[in-house]
Amino acid sequence: MIVFDLSCRPHAHRFEGWFGSSADFADQQARGLLLCPTCGSAEIVKSITAPNLGRKSNQHTPSAAQSPTPPAPVPQANAPLPPAALAALKTIAMRQAEALKSSTWVGDRFAETARAIHYGEQTATAIHGQATTAEAEALCEEGVEITPILFPITPPGTAN
Ligand SMILES: [Zn+2]
């Protein structure tokens, strides 16, 4: 288990999350499973730890504002969720599962397909698939509406 200092992007509420591995955190973050216990926001980021804080130094400190998309690998945790949040997630997941019955699985071509639909290069249709955290963030920044799937998906073709 690994503990991470997390914070929500909208309000910078700080909280701790326990994860089995860094990959677990990245996965849960990508799927929007991490929620701020204070405000319920799903925009959770790792708090920047500043080990050099307070150290006297003349070193130039790069401005954080200059790097819009830090590619830093994200760690992990099983952040405890309030019961109300869990119930809400369950409801959303059930409705999402229902909606996905009429959606097309596009696997790892999700990002490019979602983008093509967004820009009108492909007929608009419901799709679901896999995207990396970086791909999901890029899509969000481009204004492509995507939603994390809140339940485990077995990609077609891998069953049985
Ligand atoms: Zn918050």
Structural description of this entry:
The chain has 160 residues and is an alpha+beta fold. Among the domains are: 1-48 and 72-81, no CATH class; 91-141, no CATH class. The chain is 28% helix and 14% strand. It has four helices and five strands, in the order E-E-H-E-H-E-H-E-H. The strands form two sheets. Strands 2-1-3 form a three-stranded antiparallel β-sheet. A two-stranded parallel sheet has the order 4-5. A hairpin with a 5-residue loop joins strand 1 and strand 2. The radius of gyration is 18 Å and the shape is globular. The two termini are 31 Å apart. The mean pLDDT is 81. The structure holds zinc ion (ZN).
Order of helices and strands: EEHEHEHEH
* Cofactors, ions and other ligands in the entry: zinc ion
Extract low-pLDDT stretches. Answer: none
Number of strands: 5
Mean pLDDT: 81
- Rg over CA atoms, rounded to whole Å, is 18 Å
The major β-sheet equals:
3 strands, antiparallel
What is the 3D form? globular
Q: Tell me the strand order in the biggest sheet.
A: 2-1-3
Strand content: 5-15%
* SS summary, helix count: 4
Distance between the termini: 31 Å
SSE topology:
Elements: E1 2-8, E2 14-19, H1 22-30, E3 44-46, H2 83-99, E4 104-107, H3 110-118, E5 127-129, H4 133-141
Parallel strand pairs: 4-5
Antiparallel strand pairs: 1-2, 1-3
Zinc ion is lined by residues 8, 11, 13, 36, 38-39, 41.
Which descriptors would you attach to this protein?
160 residues; alpha+beta; 3-stranded antiparallel β-sheet; two-stranded parallel ribbon; 4 helices; 5 strands; binds zinc ion
